[in-house]
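Record format v2
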Amino acid sequence: MNSDEFILSILVNNEAGVLTRVSSLFSRRAFNIDSLSVGVTDDPKISRITIVARGDDYVKNQIILQLEKLHDVKKVELMPQTGTVMRELVLIKLNISQESRVGLMEAVSVFRAKVVDLTNDSVTLEITGERSKCNAFVEYLRAFGIAELCRTGLTAITRGPKTLKPDESV
Amino acid sequence: MKIKGAELIIRILLEKGVDTVFGYPGGAVLNIYDELYKASDRIKHYTTCHEQGASHAADAYARVTGKVGVVLATSGPGATNLVTGIANAYLDSSPIVAITGNVACPAIGKDSFQEVDITGVTMPITKHNYIVKDVNRLASVLREAFEIAASGRPGPVLVDIPKDVQQAECEYEPAEDAVEPQQYRNGKEAFAQAVKLISECKRPFIYTGGGTVSSNASKELLALAEKIDSPIGSSMMGLSAVSHDHPRFLGMTGMHGKLAASRVLSEADLLIAIGTRFSDRATGNKVEYIKGKKVIHIDIDPSEISKNIPAFVSLIGDVKSVLKKLVNELPPCDRKDWHQEVENIRNSSDRRLEKPKDELNPQTLIQAVNRHAPKDSVVCTDVGQHQMWTAQYYEFSKPRSFVTSGGLGTMGFGMGAAIGSCLGNNRKKTILFTSDGSFHMNMNEMVTAVSHQLPLVVVLLNNNTLGMVRQWQTLFFGCRYSNTSLERRTDYVKLVEAFGATGMRVSTLEELEPALEKAFAAKGPVLIEAAIDQDEKVLPMIPPDGTIKDIILKA
């Protein structure tokens, strides 16, 4: 991670428009956002958003305080740089013939990626991991010619028994 | 017993103590208006000429009463016409609930007639907003809307209700006990630090904003000033919290603040900022603004702390309760040297700022209106030079007696605001200072004032130009008066008479006195047009991003 990057985990009401409220706050306050992923939690009323953003301490602090003001936001947590499990999933399609795949399977094995689809003219790979690993894998694959690529954005959870729960009062 | 959504809306309004609603009927709110008809003995609805006027009226009503203002509009253009008013309330932290109708749920997303995604449009200018697609959620959403609007830092909430939800039936259950408002806890440490800073400083300055007014904390503010022997200055939004003649009050600071107030502020070594957000118009250059000072920031909104000005110590919470606690913990102190210095600065006025007393100019005009006005009048303004002159020369003596568009700077705010203020202040005499530029934006609402025979005294400063923009063009754009010299030929007297109001025109001080006597004796709305030279300037002026050293005293 770059030094001014940080990860926020946000618990929100699982309601229409919540994602817009959160993302539009970033544009309105001129904050940078690198990635955003969202999905429902074990409680169907609550969704969890993970945001990777950039900025100095002032920006970081403002983002957190402004997010906390949104009515649908139940909890905002700055994820610690260490002690956090971070994962991203990347799907990569390479439109290459069988002869051109020399070294590809080796890379798949070294990076612990997976082949999820295979035809005579194409290979589709899946890799899950920290962003640095995903980036390294993608860089390595560039030589083969990447036809299509999509990433989910980072999601994160802290190590150990500590959990993220909405504040009781709100 | 089941009732319709539209009736439920009225029941919740009554439950919340609403007796005044501003709005404009239309296709998507017909059901609500039908219920308003039945409830007309308990809720008085004021139809404006344009939804914008209704939104400003609700905003002003909220500011004057301290209650939540309510505005009602139909879908599509009705809803979008509220947008400026909602943004205005948002920037000035005024609690309003805007209720809009929308097309029926099955028609949403089809670009139906008068359909607009008003929750999408107003997302960045509301504290929160809703579209209610299930009638069973309507009661809880409306109750929550009132609670959100009024709690914490107040602000606007919009509730969009599709037509079929208004028509659908549901059970009505009276409200359960109200939720306790959120209590903020500052650690003992924060108070201890604040006490230490205040005790150790030599030259404190209390800088108060709109939060002191909305928190009804004038008494606590003065108690603090007495205890720590400190002068008080104010932002524009904070005017009226302290009476103009209080010996500790120096007046407004900032771009067009009082010279003495700005000077004393610049000399201070501790700035105690209360219920204020350090707008760029209030601070000028932010680095220079706090040079040689520490800042204690007291505000109910944690995100305001260190947003614009870094705070050394912050106390989060309702200004009134924080001040009470702080005053209790502070030891009294005497600061004779500082007191003397403040008095010296206060008494060394600058002659360049003096205006002739024997001619009609903004100062003599506003002061004359001030003399004639009853003490319990609310004073409203539009936006521009006349607004700054009012802030400078009018002598406010009662909290919530000054209603102006601070954050958004909305030209056209005035007429709606005067209507809302008047109705919020038991239909007492209400004064509006406006100008040819601002008045033309929403003058239609004079019609509303006539319909309801509201005792408004509208004083229109006519300089035939967009004065504030012209002032900037003079000072910063080489006197190139691009599109600000208005060749309008409006006869304001005839205009308002055509609307059914009384109009008068004055161009000398001699003419002004009888005009004011007549205006303040009148029952309905009166407009006085006063001729003002187009090169009158608002002074002093600290240029944008400037400091006290750059202050302009003569131009």
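The longest strand of chain B covers residues 96-102.
The first helix of chain B runs from residue 5 to 15.
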